[in-house]
Amino acid sequence: MDEKLQKLAAVLKRDSVSVTFFVGAGISTSCGIPDFRSPKTGLYSNLKKLNLPYPEAVFDIDYFRKSPKAFYTLADELYPGKFVPSKFHYFVRLCQDKKKLKRCYTQNIDTLERIAGVRDEYVVEAHGSFAKNHCIDCDWEMETSELKRQMKSQIPTCAKCKGYVKPDIVFFGEALPAKFFDLWDEDSSSKTDLAIVAGTSLAVYPFAGLPAEVSTKATRVLINREKCGDFERNPRKSDVLLLESCDLVVEKLVQLLGWEKELDSLVKEGERALKENALYVHPTEKDLEEKVKKEAEAIAKVEREEEKKENQQIDELTETLQNIKVKD
Ligand code: OAD
After folding, report:
1. Closest CA to 132 of 327, 313, 285, 272
2. From atom 31 of ligand 1, which residue's Cα is the shortest distance away?
3. Model confidence pTM above 0.90
4. Would you say the CB of residue 58 lies under 6 angstroms from ligand 1?
5. Is 226 in the pocket of ligand 1 (CB under 6 A)?
6. pLDDT tens, 86-135?
7. Closest residue (by CA) to atom 18 of ligand 1?
8. Which sites bind NAD(+) (predicted)?
9. I need a labelling partner for 270 at 20 to 30 A (CA). Which of 36, 53, 159, 319 fits?
């Protein structure tokens, strides 16, 4: 592995290098979140208590329509806010800080890329996230605080049509977000030097098909406990296979790159934030737009009130002056 890592480090050290990540549940297992398909520890082998017809039914939209309880039993366990990013997540963040990150395509719904500080323009949550919630019938949006409140005692229900509400994570039978298709259209036809695929069994399409579409000019790297997908079926001569734990590979890589101190301080920052219950999530573009709109509305309100006050003062002054004139 050392020789392969040195080769990888040499490419990463280049100033203009452009890196695209394709990641899955394996980058979050060290944070305490189980992956899906690992035998024994994976989520799908531990769902007996939910009495499902087949394990994936827990994320199936038709099954949810009939029996939403199974998903909500699990949602409570998986809900973001309790987990800190892994070294691998912070490595993606470091690539961003060093202007080497082109994009991070993730199948994960834990938002740990954002918590690690990867900005909205770089993250593509192909399977959605817990950031927003909508009614499955009329698309009405429910505030997250309300969803969490209702989750404690019932299945969250739409205030308008009484349909079930679920977080915007993509279920089997639902479309992937437009951002996924739009950005992949753009990214697959522009330059990437390194395509790093990590912590995924490449079992769920269309995501699983992306590594096969990466330009042959790019070097593909697989960091995973096992060989999978296109790396197994159609290997390329230039592929680099690092069949190890994601965090271990990152530990060794940052040593070769001289990034250890920066990685350490990010990891410590995350641990501190969790202790202080202050995990910061980078806002989405829509959140930022809403924030700017609200701020503009607040400023306009203050300006209207000030104008009203000024007009009142002018009226009072005019009246006083007229009274003085009348007396004269
Ligand atoms: P999987 O559980 O299918 O695959 C995780 C992969 O990561 C496996 O190959 C593991 O061997 C590997 N792995 C686990 N821990 C690791 C570690 N610490 N270091 C290196 N490798 C590790 O998870 P995904 O591929 O992400 O979709 O699953 C894809 C989709 O299937 C999910 O997004 C989810 C699921 O059904 C939906 O819910 C729509």
Report:
1. 285
2. 204
3. no
4. no
5. yes
6. 999 999 999 999 999 999 999 999 999 998 999 999 999 999 988 889 99
7. 245
8. 25-29, 35-37, 107-110, 200-201, 224-226, 246
9. 36
